[in-house]
Structures are given as C-alpha cells and as structure tokens.
Amino acid sequence: MSFLSALFGRAAGAPAEKAAEPVEYKGYVIRAAPYKGDGGQFQTAGTIEREIGGVLRQHRFIRADAFASYDEAVTFTLGKARQIVDLQGERMFQ
C-alpha cells in the first residue's frame, strides 16, 4: 500500500479493517485506524480531532511501528496519539 493511499484512505479493493472505538483524551477525540500493510502486519495509524473555534480540526498520523495483531496495533496507536496530544497540543493543527 502506498504512503498516500495509507494516509488518505485504503487502497481500492483492499478489505476494510474493523473500526476501533473513538477515545476521548484531554478534550481530543482519538480514532485508531491501523491498516494491514505490506508483509501482513498492522501499521500504526490514526487521527486526532478537536473542535477549535467552531471548526473540527483533524491531524492524521502514521508511524513505522507494525504489529502482528490488530488489537496490539490499536493499543499502541492510542498510546502514541496520547503522546502527540501531550507533546504538541493544538500546535499539531498548524
């Protein structure tokens, strides 16, 4: 799967993974969205959302970490998203 298709959506014809439940953290909504990449492992990916000034802002992220199971990837993705929120806060939307 190419970087751009991973960032903006799954490849045509690729099966969709089950959707992880959104998680609220410090006023942000985290949506883990790991996808099965080359080699059959689940790639760390997700979005962080927050409404600012009446506008919903979204930050997408992908990391190199890969896991054998979807659930492991979701757990790691949520932890990574919390770390991004703690380190960057609203600056991630600039």
Give a brief rundown of this model.
The chain is 27% helix and 36% strand.
Report on this model:
There is one protein chain. This protein is of the alpha+beta class and 94 residues long. The protein has a single domain, classed as Double Stranded RNA Binding Domain (2-Layer Sandwich), CATH 3.30.160. Helices cover 27% and strands 36% of the residues. It contains 2 helices and 5 strands. Strands 1, 2, 3, 4 and 5 form a 5-stranded antiparallel β-sheet that branches. Strand 3 and strand 4 form a beta hairpin. The termini are far apart.
Helical percentage? 25-40%
Rg on CA atoms, Å: 13 Å
Supply the CATH class. Alpha Beta
What structural class results from the helix and strand content?
Answer: alpha+beta
CATH domain topology: Double Stranded RNA Binding Domain
Strand content: 35-45%
Number of strands: 5
For the sheet with most strands, the description reads:
5 strands, antiparallel
CATH architecture, by name, is 2-Layer Sandwich
Count of separate structural domains? 1
Q: How many angstroms does the end-to-end distance come to?
A: 27 Å
Task: Give keywords.
94 residues, alpha+beta, Double Stranded RNA Binding Domain, 5 strands, 27% helix
Layout of helices and strands:
Elements: H1 3-8, E1 23-25, E2 28-32, E3 35-36, E4 42-52, E5 55-67, H2 70-88
Antiparallel strand pairs: 1-2, 2-4, 3-4, 4-5
